Structure formats: C-alpha cells, structure tokens
Amino acid sequence: MSWRKAALEVNENKNFEKLPSGSTAARLARHKLKRIGSQMERVIEEIKKKSGASRLEEIAKLFERAIYGNTPNVKDLNLYKGAVNRTKTCGGETGFSGKVAHAGKSLVLDFLCLCGKAEDGEPKVCGELVNVNDAGNWNTTTGMNGESNWNIIKGSCENMEFPKSCLAAEVLRAVADFESVLSKGGKTTAPVGKPGFHVYPGVFGICKYARERLSPPTVGCDGGKDYHSCICVYYGVASDWKNIQWLQHMKSALGLLEAAEATQLDITHLRMLQSRAEEIYDEAKMTLEHENPKWRSGSQSYYSCLFLPWALVI
C-alpha cells in the first residue's frame, strides 16, 4: 500500500525532516491522521472484497452470452437458427398461453423476431432507420439471411444516440421497463375507449392490425402484417420469465458491473482521504512556522504527496 510504504520511508530516511512532536499543532494533526489511516484501511479492505467481482472479462462474457447465446461467431448460421417456422421460434404458435421453447435464448434471435424481414411483413417495422427490405427473408430453419438482417439491426442501433455514460443503474432501469411491459402485455391492448380486446402478458411487440380491427390474433409472432398476425416475441406466462436466458445473463453482468462501479467509488474515496491528509500536514506545518519562524521543514521529494502527511504519525 502506497501510504504505508511512504510512512516507512519517511521514518527511515534522514532527508525527511520531522515536525516537532511536542507541539500542540503536531499532536492534533497526528490524531487526525491516525483516524484517516483507519478509514483508509477500511476502504482498502472493501476494495479487496469487491475486486474479485469486478473482473471486466467476466462481465464482458456475460454480456456476450446475453447478445449471442452460445454461438458468439456472427458468421455461424447456427446463431440465426430457430425452429421450423417463425411462430414456433418467436412464440405464440398455439396462442399466447403455455410455455415457450425458443424465445429468450439470445438477443440476436429476439431482435430478429421483432425486426427481421418476413415474407409478408413490414420492411421498417422497427423504424425508418431499420430498413430490412433488401436483407432477404429470415429463414428460421436454416438461419439464411439472418446475418444480413442482424447487421442492419445492429448498425441502426449503433447509429442511435445513447447517453455517453452508461451506468449499471441506467441499464437496470431499462431491464425493469422491459419486465413492466411484459407484465402489462406489451401493445396488444385495445385503443383507449374501445372494449373487446384481450391483454396478453408475456408478449413483447405489437399486434398492430389486430388492434385496429379489435380482433384477437389467430396466429402468434409470425412477423406478418395482416390482422391474424403479430410482430413480437412471446415469453410465456409470468413463471416462465425467469427462463429468458439473455435476461438472466444481463442481470448477472449488471450485478458485477455495479460492484466494479462501487470499487471505483472506493478508490475515489481513498484519494480524497489522501488529499485531506496532505491538507492536515500543511496546516500543521504552517502553524508551527507561524509560532516559530526559525523552524522550517527542509524535506523535499517528488514523492512528497505521499510522504509528508505520514511524517506526523511515526
């Protein structure tokens, strides 16, 4: 630890002149510095406890698994494979009830369910910037055209404006918003003031034309644009949401990221304590020089920012 090494060097090196220990100013300063030293010890112990949880590689791997699942190679067709059709891949094949086999395995697949091109789907369903019209229809069985669709989706996301500092707390709020949408049923509710339409918790996306016709969809998340279809991902009933794999990886990564951020705060606290120690030394030195103009400290070193305050505690 830097401050301990500094204190030892000050004690052993004759080039560092000590403040007179008998003066009132030195005694008061020594008392304050000892308290700061104790605080530093506690902060350093906290940093030690958290250092194991703040490994950036582990955080990065969890985020990677959330995005790509078990297939991190974007050139691998397996990354873009789902089930035999889009509805079975994205959910709702037998209606918006029961368990889901494929939805939630990776953010790549779920984004393709929401934005990827379908044979009779909207080319800009995710907005003007996400135009998959020329990407080719996403084949869930073979994975064909999955990469071209994903590249457009990913590129559009990268071109959007996001906050410059993305703290764990901000991402956790986004996760909470996602879970709130699932519990409310996404955008499958009827327009305001018009009854007769069901709410389907666990659906993330939109049943646009079914809403306009006030007719429950007869087909699940197949990406189509007629009133039978929805453009969505269905994650099942509430008890199934814990099985959304990318969400669980995301939460684990964010927990580690919070610990890493807390470590940075501890380091900042440590630096503040060091600065306060230097101030206490300077105050004591100035008081002694004022009381006794003949006394002057001759200690000089490019390490003085570490050494000088601890001259008082030894």
TrEMBL record:
It is a lipid-anchor; GPI-anchor. Keywords: Cell membrane, Glycoprotein, GPI-anchor, Lipoprotein, Membrane, Signal. It holds the Pfam family VSG_B. Its main location: membrane. GO terms for cellular component: plasma membrane; side of membrane. Residues 3-270 form the Trypanosome variant surface glycoprotein B-type N-terminal domain. It is found in: Cell membrane. VSG forms a coat on the surface of the parasite. The trypanosome evades the immune response of the host by expressing a series of antigenically distinct VSGs from an estimated 1000 VSG genes. This is Variant surface glycoprotein.
